[in-house]
Backbone:
C-alpha cells in the first residue's frame, strides 16, 4: 500500500441540498420578450409559422430551466486539501472536482472561494471561468493558496455561479461544506529546528510555538537530543499544530521537525542515526501497546515510500522501517514519520517531519 504523506482523502459535497434559485438572465429575458411578441403577432396575423417559432422559443426556455435544475441537483463537488510545503512558507493547494451525473450540460461561470478564520472570512479571487460541465463528465482544477496568516487552520467555503446552455438561466447554489475542508497553514520557519554546533558536539534545539509566537532554545547532548525533543520538551508542553479532521479520517495534529546543517555535513551522521533509531523505538512502543504506526516517506519530486505497521507487530516490520529510512536520498528532500497515536484526544495525533542536509554519512555509506 502506498500513499503520499501530504494527501488527504477527497470529500464529496452536493451543490445544494435546498431548492436552487434559478434566475432569468438578460439573455433569457430578451428571449422571453421576443417569444411573447412573436406569439402575439402570430395570433393576430394568423401566421402559423410565426406562431410555431414563438412556441418553440418559449418551450426551449421552459426546457432549459428544467434541465439546469436537474443538472444542479445531480452534480457532486469533490474537494481535497494538501499540506503546506513545510520548508517553503505559507502556501497550500486545494484540488477540486465537479462531477455532473445528469444527462444535461451546463456552464460554470465563476467559483468564489472563501477562507474563514472562525471570526471573519477571506474572499479569494474567482477560481474558474467559462467551464462547460458536460453531461456525465467531470471537471478538475487546482487552486494554490498563499500569503495567509501563519499558524492557523482555514476552512474553505464555496459559492458557484452556473448557467444553462444558451445562458437563459443562472443560479448561484452554495456548496455546503460539512465536514469542512481543513487547509494547513504552517509557520514559515518550522516549529522545531535542530541545529548542530560541531565544536561543542551538541545539538541546539529551537522549538517554535506557532500559537504564542515564541522561540525556545536549549542545548542537548547528541545521544539524547531526539528523545528529549519528542517527549520531554514538546509532547509535555503540547506544542502541536492541531486540526479537527473529518469523521472518516484518522485524527491528526502536526509537529514539524527540521534538521538544518550549519557546519560540516559529516557531523550530522549521529543525529540522523538517532532519529532513525528513535523512530523504530517509538514504533515498537506504540505497536506493542496495540496502537497503529505508519511511516510515510516522500520527497520534493513526489516520490514516496510507505510502511504500515499493525498493532503487536514483530521485528520484521521494524526492519522494514529501518530499510525504508536508510534508503532515503538525503539532501533537499523531505521524509515524514506519521504516528497515529490513538490514545490522544479524538482530534489529535502527531506527525513528525524531518529534513536532513546533503551528504549524510550513515553506516559507512554516503547518501547525496
Residues:
Amino acid at each position: 500500500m502506498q500513499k503520499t504523506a501530504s494527501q488527504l482523502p477527497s470529500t464529496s459535497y452536493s451543490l445544494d441540498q435546498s431548492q436552487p434559485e434559478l434566475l432569468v438572465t438578460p439573455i433569457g429575458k430578451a428571449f422571453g420578450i421576443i417569444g411573447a411578441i412573436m406569439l402575439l403577432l402570430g395570433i393576430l396575423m394568423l401566421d402559423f409559422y410565426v406562431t410555431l417559432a414563438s412556441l418553440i422559443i418559449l418551450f426551449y426556455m421552459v426546457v432549459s430551466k428544467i434541465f439546469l435544475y436537474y443538472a444542479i441537483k445531480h452534480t457532486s463537488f469533490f474537494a481535497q486539501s494538501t499540506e503546506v510545503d513545510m520548508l517553503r512558507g505559507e502556501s497550500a493547494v486545494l484540488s477540486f472536482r465537479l462531477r455532473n451525473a445528469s444527462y444535461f450540460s451546463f456552464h460554470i461561470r465563476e467559483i468564489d472561494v472563501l477562507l474563514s478564520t472562525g471570526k471573519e472570512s477571506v474572499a479569494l479571487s474567482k477560481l474558474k471561468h467559462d467551464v462547460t460541465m458536460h453531461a456525465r463528465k467531470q471537471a478538475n482544477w487546482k487552486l494554490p493558496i498563499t500569503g495567509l496568516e501563519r499558524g492557523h487552520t482555514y476552512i474553505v467555503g464555496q459559492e458557484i455561479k452556473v448557467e444553462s446552455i444558451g445562458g437563459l438561466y443562472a443560479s448561484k447554489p452554495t456548496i455546503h461544506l460539512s465536514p469542512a475542508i481543513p487547509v494547513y497553514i504552517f509557520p514559515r520557519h518550522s516549529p522545531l529546528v535542530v541545529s548542530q554546533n560541531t565544536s561543542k558536539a551538541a545539538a541546539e534545539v529551537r522549538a517554535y510555538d506557532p500559537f504564542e509566537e515564541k522561540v525556545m532554545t536549549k542545548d542537548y547532548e547528541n545521544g539524547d537530543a531526539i528523545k528529549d525533543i519528542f517527549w520531554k520538551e514538546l509532547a509535555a508542553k503540547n506544542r502541536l499544530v492541531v486540526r479537527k479532521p473529518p469523521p472518516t479520517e484518522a485524527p491528526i495534529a502536526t509537529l514539524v521537525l527540521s534538521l538544518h546543517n550549519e557546519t560540516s555535513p559529516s557531523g550530522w551522521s549521529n543525529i540522523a542515526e538517532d532519529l532513525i533509531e528513535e523512530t523504530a523505538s517509538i514504533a515498537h512502543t506504540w505497536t506493542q501497546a496495540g496502537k497503529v504506526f505508519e511511516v510515510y516517506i516522500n520527497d520534493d519530486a513526489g516520490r514516496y515510500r510507505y510502511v504500515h505497521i499493525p498493532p503487536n507487530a514483530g521485528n520484521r516490520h521494524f526492519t522494514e522501517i529501518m530499510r525504508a529510512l536508510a534508503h532515503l536520498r538525503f539532501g533537499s528532500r523531505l521524509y515524514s514519520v506519521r504516528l497515529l497515536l490513538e490514545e490522544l484526544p479524538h482530534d489529535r495525533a502527531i506527525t513528525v517531519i524531518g529534513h536532513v542536509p546533503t551528504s549524510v554519512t550513515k553506516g559507512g555509506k554516503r547518501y547525496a
